[in-house]
Amino acid sequence: MKRWMTFGLTMLLVFALSACGSKTTSNPPGTTTGGTTTGGTTTGGTTAGGAQDIKVTATNFQFSPAEIKVKKGDKVKITLQNKEGAHGFEIPDFKVNLQKDGSAEFTADKAGTHEFHCSVMCGAGHDNMVGKIIVE
């Protein structure tokens, strides 16, 4: 009886750990240009207000796209959608910090490469949830 209980608890632990560490994605990370995915970088479409509309999907433990390119002076609207787990999205250089699904707008007024990362502690792969926004 004790052996079966130990076996059952071990299997439960294995199942729980594998569920937490899942890294499946329905679409490969890619490039979006006006809503079309084709590679590894995103250049967003335009919203009615003139801002570039960039959709970012968060899964365990990555962002898609992981690289975003915009022009200096562009107005940018970032929309975060969580597909797996609970994640945030922060670009410290532009004071953008989404704590859950939603949108934020900013002006890309600083040329260069700026890091974005997950702003909600989401598990063992949290530190791997990074990307970059390149302002040209």
TrEMBL record:
Keyword field: Copper, Metal-binding, Signal
Cite the residue spans of the region called Disordered: 24-49
Q: Where is the EfeO-type cupredoxin-like domain?
A: 48-135
Q: Where is the composition biased (Gly residues)?
A: 32-48
Annotated signal sequence range = 1-21
GO CC, alphabetical: cell envelope
Q: What is its main location?
A: other
Which InterPro entries does its entry note?
Cupredoxin, EfeO_Cupredoxin, NosZ/Cyto_c_oxidase_sub2
Q: Does the keyword DNA repair apply?
A: no
> Which PROSITE patterns does the annotation name?
PROKAR_LIPOPROTEIN
Q: Key word Signal present in the record?
A: yes
Pfam families recorded: Cupredoxin_1 (PF13473)
GO MF terms here are: metal ion binding
Subcellular location per UniProt equals:
Cell envelope
Name of this protein: Cupredoxin domain-containing protein
